[in-house]
Design a protein that fits this description.
Chain lengths: ~350, ~130
């Protein structure tokens, strides 16, 4: 590979732990340590820690920072107070999803956005191009590392009190100060620890000592898919609209933001296709890009470690998205039966 | 659970990381330790039909880990006389015991002369070392 991959501050620790490193969104990241399945189970049963320092952080500050965000992000920022976070979408003029992200309201005039690694540059440009006097946009990604500590016993291991989902507070773990965000991408309880890059190594060591199992991007993908969290670039893209993706719940269609008009239209007439979660009825593993009979396509597929079968999500004609509908998926030339299920595919402690 | 790296001397190897244990005019086929390690924990085995013809150097089945799909290449030509159903039910057996319980198919070999082109354990270890 000609392009140089970026490394997180924890790179050497991953290698020392025997992680298998792979290129991901321009970064060299651990895909697994002990194995995807044991790591996945550790998060569902106990606690795992993921290095997600590749994700981007954008800070938007100023008396009109909220105004800039209200006009560009789909969710209603007025619904959260300082100390709260919100899942939201950056949408384009057609209602397509430029990125999905979490916005943290630091105070009335200051917001932190945690964005997908692959979209960091696009998102930053997007906000810079729309900057208004009184809003200052900065990419602060290189200053921070991010550790996701996830699982039903995450807070117990960290020695921190549990908190309400989508809140955050300053916290301290063995003397290391970090921002403790009650968010995640696994469907389990847990938090994401935003820490200064130079403190990341020590925090990682302490979190492992406290009993979290190191987990890679492989388990992160199987966990989020069981929880039915969409992955940007696969399940949601600038070409897929938020309504068809089932994300109307985070689109405040009673306010104005980029793409609100087309989204209102799609909501009004009903989307032609919908993103539907499914479970295989036969032995087979669905994969991204496989055709679904009747004009659909798999956008994410994997083997579910908890259900021990193939599971996935894909766009299907709207009538087929109803739970219980049987689908036929073309698995490399072999027709294999699947059934649409209700979200989530695997009900965890958090999503049940 | 995972087996430790080994390449038994009594087996013949194909450079696409498959092995054959020749028993008279039959052969048992599987994937090597290197192949299962590269894939990670196997979660699916798509076997050929019993009675199907397999052709040397061509895929006869698929194995999948959580992340990846891989064709399984036939080291020898022949007809499938038995599929290892245990691996269909519990693909992780291949990780635990790639040369024993984790065998994939038994074939009736159509041309034993083809075995001449296969590698012995020492030559295959060279292939692995170059990966």
């Amino acid at each position: 590979m000609a392009q140089t991959l970026q490394r997180t501050p924890l790179h050497d620790r991953h290698v020392a732990l025997g992680a298998r490193m792979v290129p991901f969104a321009g970064w060299e990241m651990p895909v697994q340590y002990a194995g995807v399945i044991p790591e996945h189970r550790a998060v569902r049963r106990d606690c795992g820690v993921f290095d997600v320092s590749h994700m981007g952080e954008i800070e938007i500050e100023g008396p009109r920072a909220a105004k800039l965000l209200q006009s560009t992000l789909s969710n209603d920022l007025d619904r959260i107070q300082a100390g709260q976070a919100q899942y939201t979408l950056l949408t384009n003029e057609t209602g397509g999803v430029v990125d999905d992200l979490i916005v943290y309201k630091l105070d009335e005039f200051r917001f932190l956005l945690v964005v997908n690694a692959a979209n960091r540059a696009v998102d930053y440009r997007w906000f810079r191009d729309r900057e208004i006097p009184g809003s200052d946009v900065r990419d602060v990604s290189d200053e921070y590392a991010l550790l996701a500590v996830q699982g039903p016993r995450a807070f117990e291991h960290l020695g921190l009190p549990d908190a309400k989902a989508f809140t955050f507070a300053e916290g301290e773990i063995d003397g290391i100060v970090c921002m403790v965000n009650r968010t995640g991408y696994t469907g389990e309880a847990g938090c994401e620890l935003l820490v200064m890059a130079e403190d990341a190594g020590e925090l990682w060591d302490r979190v492992l000592e406290r009993g979290a199992q190191p987990c890679g991007l492989g388990a992160r993908d199987t966990l989020r898919l069981e929880a039915c969290f969409p992955l940007h670039g696969q399940d949601i893209t600038p070409e897929t609209d938020a309504i068809s993706a089932g994300l109307a719940w985070c689109c405040a269609l009673d306010k104005e933001f980029t793409g609100a008009d087309p989204l209102r239209e799609i909501k009004e007439r009903g989307p032609d296709r919908k993103l539907a979660p499914f479970v295989m009825e036969e032995r087979a593993i669905p994969r991204t890009g496989m055709a679904i009979d009747g004009g659909g396509e798999v956008t994410s597929g994997t083997h579910s470690p908890m259900l021990d079968r193939g599971v996935g999500m894909g766009y299907v004609p709207a009538p087929d998205a109803k739970p219980g509908t049987e689908l036929t998926i073309d698995v490399r030339g072999r027709p294999r039966r699947a059934r649409v299920v209700k979200k989530p595919i695997y009900p965890s402690h958090e999503t049940a | 659970m995972a087996a430790t790296e080994s390449y038994p001397g009594e087996l013949k190897y194909h450079r696409e990381h498959d092995w054959a244990r020749i028993e008279d005019d039959e052969a048992v086929l599987g994937i090597t330790w290197f192949a299962q390690d590269a894939l990670g924990e196997l979660v699916h085995y798509e076997p050929p039909e019993e009675g199907a013809t397999v052709v040397k150097d061509e895929p006869y089945g698929e194995v999948e880990s959580v992340k990846a799909v891989s064709d399984v290449i036939a080291p020898l030509s022949g007809d499938v006389i038995e599929v290892n159903r245990k691996v269909v039910d519990e693909p992780e057996v291949v990780n635990a015991d790639p040369y024993g319980d984790g065998w994939l198919v038994r074939i009736r070999v159509s041309d034993l002369g083809e075995a001449e082109a296969l590698l012995d354990a020492e030559a295959y270890k060279q292939v692995v070392a170059e990966q």
